[in-house]
Amino acid sequence: xxxxxxxxxRLVVFHDTTADAWFKVGSTISTDRTVEFEGQTYPYVxxxxxxxxxxxxxxxxxxxxxxxxxARFNQxxxxxxxxxxxx
Length: 87
Prior knowledge:
The protein is 25% helix and 30% strand. By secondary structure, the protein is of the alpha+beta class. The protein has one domain. The longest helix has 18 residues, at 69-86. The radius of gyration is 25 Å and the shape is elongated. The termini are far apart.
């Protein structure tokens, strides 16, 4: 491996501000901020979405109607299309 061309890989603390969750993960992200976490000082990055706050992972995902888009289209406009085809 070539020296001096790869970014530094180190443990970084990510803070999900939406869910107030903290994650210690290996990363190459650069930041000037630091935080004291579990008795040690780590680089610190804030994020707005993580597995603790994203609707897909939390089970709070909005579900669409059970009908597909074609069924919704036919429900809205089927009567108009049906009248034109019968003329």
